[in-house]
Structure formats: C-alpha cells, structure tokens
Design a protein that fits this description.
Layout (H helix, E strand, L loop, with lengths): L2 E6 L8 E5 L1 H6 L5 E6 L3 E11 L9 E2 L2 E2 L8 H13 L4 H8 L8 E7 L13 H12 L2 E3 H8 L5 H9 L3 E7 L7 E7 L6 H10 L4 H16 L4 E2 H8 L3 H9 L3 E7 L17 H16 L2 E6 L5 H13 L4 E5 L3 H15 L3 E4 L5 H12 L7 E4 L11 E7 L17 H12 L2 E6 L4 H8 L4 E5 L10 E6 H6 L3 E2 L2 E2 H12 L3 E5 L8 E4 L16 E3 L4 E3 L6 E3 L12 E4 L3 H11 L5 E4 L9 H10 L5 E4 L12 E6 L3 H4 L6 H13 L10 E6 L5 H7 L3 H15 L5 E10 L2 H19 L4 E5 L5 E2 L2 E11 L4 H17 L7 E6 L3
Parallel strand pairs: 2-5, 13-18, 13-19, 14-16, 14-17, 15-16, 17-18, 20-32, 23-30, 23-31, 29-30, 31-32
Antiparallel strand pairs: 1-2, 1-4, 3-4, 3-6, 7-8, 7-9, 10-11, 10-12, 21-22, 24-28, 25-26, 26-27, 33-36, 33-37, 34-36, 35-36
Helix pairs in contact: 2-3, 2-15, 4-6, 8-9, 11-12, 13-20, 22-23, 25-26
C-alpha cells in the first residue's frame, strides 16, 4: 500500500499538492508539521501537512518528500480550519494565508549552493577564464558558496553564465539546501562553586583575593545581586554591576570560584512588579454586568463607550475573570502605537502572562512568541497585538477583545489574504466556541447594524470615567478667517490663542493633520509645473527635513530641485501642507517650547512609537503634531487642547465611507482632550463649518450620523445591506488594461446581471508603480447566495486567464473592500 500526504505550499496556487511518504514516515507525520518538498524543477519549499491518506493522485505522479522538518506540529488543527475559511471567503489560496500567518523563520525555502563536483577531474587552471578561476579558487578554501557570495567574489551581478560554464566543464555542481533561520538566544549564567558556600571557606577565598581587588569585588557583587533578586545571575549582569572585564570573570572561573551554565532565554520578558486591577465605578459596573449577561446569551457583544469612559478597565476585569478558567485570551489592537501604551497597563496587572506580537518584532522574537502560544505556556496566556496576532497557534482560546473595532487598520489590503481582523476574530472564536467583545467609541456602521438587529449583544457606556465632561468641540471657519486676514500660516487666530493659553497653564496640545511630509505639491510660480512621480500618477511630496521630493506610493525620490525642471525658473512655492510643515511653523511661533512629530517618518525604528509616547506622557513634549496614529485610544492625562488643522480633506475623499470615517476620526482625536477633571477643548478648522458631519460630531450626535449614513447605504446599495467585491486589474500597457477590463465587465454582467456589476472605472490614482489600474465593483444583495457568486467570479477569472493576450494582466480580488 502507498501512503500520501496533502501539503499547503507557501505560494499562490489554488490546490494542495500530494506527496509520497514511506509507511514509517506516514506513522510519524502529524497534521500541522512542516515537510520539505520538491516543487518545480529545482525548488524545495517548507510546506504544512494538511491531510494524510492512501488515495493515489490521478492527475500527476506524486513525488517523494525531501525531509520532515519538525518532530511535532507547529500549526494547530484550529489554525488549519481558519486558513481554509479565510482562503474560501477572501478568494485567495491557503498558501497565501500560510505565508501571512507563519513567521519568516518557519518559511524555509531552499537556497542554491555551489560545490566542487564529487566526481570531478582536476581542471587545467590555464583553461579557466579569470572569473571561473576565482570561483574555483574560492571553493578550494571553503566547501560551498551561495550565489550572492559568488556575486561578491566576482564583483558583478551577472554570475550565472560563469557558473554554468564550470558546470559544463564538470568542475562544480549546484544543489538546493534548506537552512534554519531561527537562532535561539543562549544566555550564560554564573553560579558559585559548592566548596565556597560555607562562611569559613568564603572568608578564606576573599582573603586570598585581596591581591586581586577586581576579582574580589566581583565575588561580593555576586552575593549582592543574589540578595536583590532570587533569580539566576547572567555573566553580563555580573560584569555590568561590578564593572569588571570578561578576562577577570574568566580568571575566577579558571580558579574554580565560579561555574558557568547556559540556558535558552526568550528575547522579550517582564521584570517589573504587578499591582491589583482598579475598582470599577458605578457606570462601569453596570456595563460590566450587562456584558456578562449578554455573553451568556450571544457569541459577540459590542461595548459602545464614549472616549475616556474606561473601556480598557472593563476589558481588564473581564480578562482577569477569564484567566481563572485557564483559557488563552487575545487582545487585538489596530495600531502598534496603541500596543506600546497598553502593554504597560496589562503587564502591571498580569505580569509575565502577557505576550506581545506585532510587525516591528524581529523574526526570532516572533518565533518565540509563536512557540510560547503553541505550547500554551503561562507567559503567553494573554496575547496582545495588531491584526497578525490573530493568526497565532492558539490551543485553547476562550476570549477575544477587539479594541477600536471600527478602525480601517484591521483590514489587510496588500498582499493577500485581504482579510479583516475583526471578522476573522469572530470566525476564530466560533471555531474555539469562545466569546468576542468588540469595543469602540464610534462603532462601524456594520457592527452597529448587527447590534441593532440583535445579531450581537449591545452595551452602551455614555459616561466618562470620573464624571469628566465630554470635550467641547468648536468649528473654526478658516474661509472667513482668511477673508478677515486672521490666519498666521495655517493657524487661525482662535487656534493660536487656545494653544498659547494651554501652554501658559502648563498643559499639552495635540495637533492633527492627516498628511505627512512638508507639502504634497511643489509648484513653479512661472509655468505652474509640479514634479510628478515617473512611476505613479501623483505629484511628489516635499520632505523638508530630508531636502527631497518623495512618492508615498512607490518610494521614488529625488533631491529637492533648486530650479523648475520645465522652464528653469527659480521661483518655487508649496501647495498644501503636511505634519512637517505644521511642526516647522510651530517652532517659529513657539520657539521656547518642545515640539515633536508623530508619523511614519519619525516612528520607523522598533521603539520609535514607544520613545515618542513615553516622552509625551512624561510631559517632556509640549505640542505633539501627528497623523491618524494619534487618534487611536491613547491616554494622555495632561492634554487639554486638540486642534484639527483641516477637516475638509477627510470629508472630500472619494469613498462611500468618507463621511463615516471623518466622524470617527474627528471624534477619536477629540477624545484625547480633557481626560482629567478639566473639560477638554477641540478646535476643528474647516472651510465648510455647516457640513452635516461636522455639525453632528461637534454636538456628539453619533446616533443621528448612524441613521443618516445607514439610510444612504440602503438607498445606494452599499454595506451592510450589500456585500462588495472589488476586482482590480493591473498592467503596464494602457491599451491592454482598457480592452481587458471592458471584456471582463461584459462577461461578469452576463453572469451576474447588469445591475450587480459597476465599472470598469479609473481609480483616483490611475497608475501606481508603472502599472495602470481599473476597478470593477460587484454588489451582492443579502438574499443572493454568496458562495455561488464567488464560484461564478472564479470561473470568469479562469476564462480571463485562459485568453493569451490577457494572461499578463493581473487580477486582484478584494472581498469586503472597505
């Protein structure tokens, strides 16, 4: 009898692939293990075993596996279920889900190595060309070379012809080898030799070391550290505390005073002290009891609590209760910026039970968190992280908190899978029969609608913690201010007076501008030319601190031009403004104050967020200018004023969710103000103060906004009443993208109906990275079978790809594209 396994390959192919295994391998292999398998002519991939069987494949002859990489599964059965659902729902392959889920250290792929041929005949060195001889000589000194090492040796990129000539001459051979990418952290610890543990022998030792004061001091430091903390003492800590060198420590080890041993240690740990959770106030207690009651009846509950109402404390109390059951808990946040502040709070309450997982962590750190969750260790009972934390290998998940559930950051746009973490969290919870709590001050329309129709439980918390008043939101008409010449740069006199007043009282200020850089356009005043990105249909953004023009879509950049590239004129001016320009203007207006900027330019490093947030919390910064990173649940106690520089850019965005998102963004950033006893103040600068959304947000009328937007969605057939699937076509050839998109729309309309398919339409940015784009939108009403509709779309996609002239056009399918 033959034995087979089906594996998921980390590449975008629709099906799993079947491989042949021996009877012994079949008995050892478990679902979720990694096996190295050959694929294509030479490539070897680490794949995940999805199933085992004895059915011979009929379409192709099954190859044998290369090797088994694990002695136990690294992926759980529940994960495989989630991967399968995500691939089906978001119309992608399980391989793409696998690539998104697994840390890169697990994604082993073979690397081509070059070795001297095992049966080689010694070549005549005179017959070898210079580049061939350099490769041959290098292989005399080391057993193998990687392709990139050959590039370094020859100092050129085109090395394959040289390698091929040596292969043809029988001098070398090429092989595919797999390398383990994860390296555990090994720490050297110090312990005192047993013969010196008694008081008399210790005194004798100290006397003998009197002639070596540094060594004597090291022994005394060892006892001092041991008294302070009852934990193993690392050689590094001992050297740092005593100020000794590695040589002096080595001398004591040689004398037999100290012994060393090595231990594997996680790169991330918690050494602080814990404290008890805070007592809830009367409003929080009512909400807490109501959430508990709803969780008994429903799988998902929405907590709609205004900003600064103490939602986090309710989450903490629920987590504390869930911990006693021994289940794992997942706390999802939309931004890494939020995790830095919340980690401290959760670790204060739960200590080393808290594990953190997000994209700023190194490959090795991610592997350690993955393994801790997989092994269900106490140090990873509570996992806090951004959307990727959802894909960790939970064993016994009992509770999921999705904080700021309305945030668009929970949606993955590129690459596939284009999933929404909130929706996937609900599916993951159903797999584990766990409970989900969604929390927000401004819930998304979809979530609010599900709560209103009874699908989710609904709990409202409308009172701020400590009876603090909601911030006072005022609209500033900058069109009128400009007419009266009451503007200084981009600041109205009203905003400047408010900033000066807050700073005089020793309070802090947040200014929000949802665009980074100095200015989005640099324009010649003579001919009107503005430098454009050669790869995208956008103007280059001026970044003053780097003195360069940069494209925010493809990364293309050039040095700042001193003269117009079109007419040679020297009069250049900026149009529009970003966070960098606001920061520069503030430094001129308030030269004696500390002003910082928080955007993706200033938070690139691993601890970029943490440093800025900590400095602002400790009141080392007076004014913080930032993009939407500032809006998401951050808690600053001394902020009394929030300024929104220009609300109109959000309202006029070409998207059916623009008004809803504008309300959410303004309400959230307003919520950073007045989180202590003094009422906060929010000033919103706008050219259109009578806009309905701005009026609603200034009066905190969420329900009115919800009803109005819901009615619009019903009228124009958008979510939550219709499912939306967007198909984007991408290609370098303008003519090809035009004809292919027209063909695709006509076939989709024939299959799904004229009214269900909109397009093709040109998006607001028609070309990105030298690829033209066209969008097709498919609207699926609630009564229509979603699974069958997706099958039709897949059939049409297959027909499209079968047409030779359209084969090079890339189709990107985005389900729930909002």
């Amino acid at each position: 009898m033959s034995y087979f396994i089906d594996v998921i390959l980390p590449i975008p192919v629709e099906n799993t692939f079947t491989y042949l295994v021996s009877e012994r391998e079949y008995g050892f292999i478990a679902l979720g293990m990694r096996v190295a398998v050959p694929f294509g002519k030479t490539k070897i991939y680490a794949s995940i075993v999805k199933s085992k069987h004895t059915q011979v494949p009929t379409i192709y002859e099954a190859k044998e596996i290369f090797q088994i990489l694990d002695d136990r599964p690294i992926v759980t059965p529940e994960q495989l279920k989630l991967w399968s659902w995500m691939a089906s729902y978001y119309m992608c392959s399980e391989g793409e889900v696998m690539r998104a889920a697994l840390p890169k250290a697990f994604m082993l792929e073979s690397e081509t190595v070059i070795k001297l041929h095992s049966d080689r005949i010694e070549p005549n060195e005179l017959t070898l060309k210079d580049d061939e001889f350099l490769i041959y000589e290098a292989l005399q000194h080391q057993s193998e070379l990687k392709v990139h090492e050959v590039m370094d040796i020859l100092d050129k990129k085109k090395v394959l012809p040289s390698i091929q000539r040596l292969i043809d001459k029988g001098v070398i051979e090429m092989q595919e080898e797999i390398y383990e990418k994860y390296a555990p952290k090994i720490v050297k610890f110090i312990t005192l030799s047993p013969q010196f543990e008694s008081e008399s022998t210790l005194n004798e030792l100290l006397n003998t070391l009197s002639s070596a004061p540094k060594q004597r001091e090291m022994v005394l430091t060892f006892f001092s550290l041991k008294a302070k903390k009852n934990k193993p003492i690392s050689s590094k800590d001992l050297q740092n505390e005593s100020g000794a060198t590695a040589a002096q420590l080595k001398a004591l080890i040689k004398k037999g005073v100290f012994k060393t041993y090595e231990m594997r240690q996680d790169r991330i740990g918690f050494d602080g002290e814990t404290s008890k959770t805070q007592v809830l106030n009367s409003y929080q207690k009512v909400s807490y009891a109501s959430i508990e009651k709803h969780l008994d009846e429903k799988e998902v509950v929405l907590l709609h609590g205004v900003t600064a109402s103490g939602k986090t404390e309710i989450y903490v109390q629920l987590i504390e209760k869930m911990l006693s059951s021994g289940n794992q808990i997942l706390y999802l946040l939309p931004e890494i910026a939020l995790t830095t502040q919340l980690i401290t709070r959760l670790q204060t309450y739960f200590g080393e039970k808290v594990a953190v997982f997000h994209s700023k962590y190194s490959v090795n750190e991610r592997v350690e968190v993955w393994n801790n969750v997989l092994q269900k260790l106490d140090k990873a009972q509570i996992v806090i992280g951004a959307r990727s934390a959802l894909l960790l290998p939970f064993r016994d998940l009992g509770f999921i908190v999705v904080d700021e559930e309305h945030e668009s950051s929970f949606k993955q746009y590129d690459p596939a899978p284009r999933y929404h973490a909130r929706d996937c969290a609900i599916v993951l919870a159903s797999i584990f029969k766990a409970k989900v709590l969604l929390g927000s001050a401004t819930p998304s329309l979809e979530t609010m609608h599900n709560a209103q129709i009874g699908k989710y439980g609904y709990v409202s918390l409308k009172q701020r913690h400590g009876n603090i008043l909601m911030p006072e939101i005022n609209l500033v008409d900058i069109k009128e201010k400009s007419r009266k010449r009451e503007m200084t740069g981009h600041f109205s006199d009203t905003l400047l007076k408010a900033i000066a007043g807050a700073l005089d009282l020793g309070e802090q200020v947040i200014l929000f501008q949802n665009r980074r850089g100095f200015s989005p356009i640099l324009e010649c005043t003579t001919c009107g030319h503005a430098p454009q990105c050669p790869n995208c249909d956008v103007s280059l953004t001026y970044h003053k601190y780097r003195s360069q023009l940069r494209c925010h879509y493809c990364g293309y950049n050039i040095a700042l031009q001193q003269k117009c590239m079109a007419c040679g004129g020297s009069e250049l001016t900026t149009k529009g403004f970003g966070t960098e320009q606001i920061e520069a203007e503030l430094k001129n207006l308030f030269p004696d104050k500390v002003i910082s900027r928080m955007d993706s330019d200033t938070t690139r490093g691993k601890y970029g967020f943490e440093k800025l947030i900590t400095a602002f919390e400790q009141e080392q910064i007076d004014i913080l200018v930032g993009t939407q990173m500032l809006t998401k649940g951050l808690d600053f106690r001394n902020v009394s004023l929030v300024g929104i520089m220009n609300a109109d850019s959000m309202l006029n965005f070409p998207d059916f969710r623009a008004h809803e998102r504008s309300y959410q963004l303004i309400a959230q950033v307003a919520g950073r103000a007045g989180r202590t006893q003094k009422q906060g103040k929010v000033l919103v600068q706008t050219y259109n103060p009578y806009h309905q959304i701005l009026q609603q947000v200034s009066l905190n009328k969420f329900d009115a906004m919800y009803e109005e937007q819901l009615e619009e969605r019903r009228t124009f057939k958008y979510s939550p009443f219709y499912r939306l699937i967007r198909i984007t076509l991408r290609h370098r050839d303008y003519e090809k993208i035009e004809t292919s998109s027209v063909w695709l729309v006509s076939v989709l309309k024939q299959s799904l109906g004229e009214k269900s398919v909109l397009g093709p339409e040109t998006p607001s940015i028609a070309r990105i990275r030298n690829q033209y784009r066209r969008n097709i939108l498919i609207k699926i009403p609630q009564g229509q079978n979603l699974v069958q509709t997706k099958k039709v779309i897949k059939r049409v996609e297959s027909s499209f790809n079968a047409i030779p002239q359209y084969r090079s056009v890339r189709l990107v399918i985005d389900v729930d594209c909002y």
